[in-house]
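Pipeline run #58 for the internal structure catalog. This entry was flagged by the ingest filter as a single-chain record with no existing model, so it goes straight to prediction. Upstream metadata was stripped on purpose; only the residue string is passed forward. Reviewer on rotation: M.T. Logging verbosity set to normal.
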Amino acid sequence: MQGAWWAIGITVASLAALAYYAFVVLPARIHRWRCEGLRAFARLIELRTQGRYGKAEPMAELADAVAQRLGIPLHERRRMELAIYLRDIGMVAIPYHILNKPTPLTPAEHDLMGRHAEIGASITEQIPGLWHVAPIVRLHHVVYSERPDAPLTTHILSALDDWLRIAECADADTASSVLKQGAGARYHPLATQAILSEVHQRALNSVKMLTRSAALWL
């Protein structure tokens, strides 16, 4: 009798391990493989635009942290990460001289640049297994006052894309001020607050790390 209970216990444990692998480990690995493959698309745009667009790694890591603050489920965060690598792929259809123009764009050129999101979504829809990512790519520059009902992940990307761009061109304080001023109009209030909270926490952590490093030399 005792042997039968041992057999049942081993069987249950084996099934539990198999289920954990099938529903937790394997999906995570597949997601990472997808991200590694799509990283090439982002790198392509980064090279074509001399580093102006397509940068994915900084946004992917920060966007996930912001999404976690907002309680966004894991499957939606993973879909958002895939969209980050594909968000600027539509720029392959934009003429090179416009992408790298050193002077301000004309209204016509600006409108053409604005089409990259729709073009990118159309391309994403053609990639096997990624059709569900296309709506995020299409709306990654969404304006809150125009589409307040858009998925929260798209509002995160819209605000975060601007924050990173401004922070790189100016500084983090300027980027944060722009988001604060645009909250409720250009940017989703919840997304804005989560981004500002995350970057503020990271700034504090950096100061603490510098303080600890300095203390070691005293």
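catalog note: Confidence is low (pLDDT under 50) at residues 213-217.
catalog note: The chain has ten helices and no strands.
status: ready for reviewer M.T.
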